[in-house]
Design a protein that fits this description.
Blueprint lengths: L1 H36 L12 H8 L2 E4 L6 E4 L5 E7 L1 E2 L7 E5 L2 E5 L5 E7 L2 H12 L9 E4 L6 E4 L5 E10 L7 E6 L4 E5 L4 E7 L2 H12 L1
Antiparallel strand pairs: 1-2, 2-3, 4-5, 5-6, 6-7, 8-9, 9-10, 10-11, 11-12, 12-13
Length: 219
């Protein structure tokens, strides 16, 4: 009777120990799995990790003979990113500039947009890609762009998102000091900073007058 009771206790303790180990090691195993995949995740600023780079290096921009559109083939000649672009560049630092319709943007090796296809100029899109590559915060560098829906001018950040919503009749690009000359709707010319605050009130009749006022202010 004593032996039987001891054997039962041993079995119960063994089962308890196994259950406890499962509760400890299962979360650790899941954590290890996530960590092993983490280089493939997009950081929200720029692609990171050697795995992402290796995927990008294995993709070749290629024109589809049937449609005349560009996509990306892998090393065994299979479409990884389907033909859908008017033009497509090679990947560098996990990003490639592409043209979708009449607008330029940038994708990652998974075909997801890093820079939204909103730039009418390939040069501006390249500058946006360069801003991301340098690790700039969104909104430090911006590009003046007319919104086709409202025909008003706003400012895009390097992700191709409106940092300053379209609201001006006209706008110049920001200078190196973070100032931009703009014309308010139905009003005059003034100067804003990156926070969309007027540092020179929009009371000038001509753009060059606001530019001259800004030059004097910087002295």
């Amino acid at each position: 009777m004593v032996f039987g009771w001891g054997e039962s206790t041993f079995v119960m303790e063994t089962n308890f120990f196994c259950c406890a180990m499962k509760r400890i090691f299962l979360p650790l195993s899941l954590m290890a799995l996530v960590c092993s995949c983490s280089p493939m995740l997009y950081s929200g600023i720029f692609p990171v990790g050697e795995k992402m780079q290796s995927v990008a290096h294995g993709l070749t921009p290629t024109e589809d003979r049937a449609t005349g559109l560009y996509g990306y083939l892998n090393n065994v000649g299979i479409w990884v990113i389907a033909p859908q672009f008017k033009s497509a560049g090679s990947f560098s630092d996990g990003m490639a500039r592409v043209k979708k319709g009449n607008y330029y943007g940038a994708i990652d090796p998974l075909g997801q947009w890093i820079v939204q296809p909103v730039f009418t100029s390939s040069v501006d899109c390249d500058d946006a890609i360069g801003s991301i590559r340098k690790g700039r915060l969104a909104g430090i560098e911006m590009w003046a762009m007319e919104d086709p829906a409202t025909e008003l001018c706003g400012y895009l950040n390097h992700f191709g998102e409106w940092q300053i919503k379209p609201q001006y009749e006209s706008g110049m690009d920001f200078d190196g000091d973070g100032f931009a000359v703009v014309k308010v709707k139905g009003g005059g010319w003034g100067v804003i900073n990156r926070m969309n605050q007027f540092v020179i009130q929009p009371n000038f009749d001509h753009k060059h007058e606001a530019q001259s006022a800004l030059a004097r202010l910087k002295r």
